[in-house]
Amino acid sequence: MGLFTRRSSLFGRSRTLDRDPLVGRGGGYYAMLTPPSLPLFVISAVLAAGALLFRYAGVDVPVVTSANAFDILAIAYAILVAGVLLPRF
Fold first, then answer.
1. Which residue ranges traverse the bilayer (predicted)?
2. Are residue 9 and residue 43 in the same domain, yes or no?
């Protein structure tokens, strides 16, 4: 299955949807979202928490300044998005 998969019905069949004229007409495309693996989630959470600490708590790390804390936060979000969009990642 790819990232976008065709599905016959988004909600499945139920008694209330059986009378709907649009049920069974092909449905649409939806994104195959998967939960991120635990290591990716932990890495993302640690980076995000670190970025918040660098920016608002004034924690000093030689490589990271408060000016590039947003970059670290964006990297953490990109890792989390990759874990959600890419299966088995």
1. 38-57, 69-86
2. no
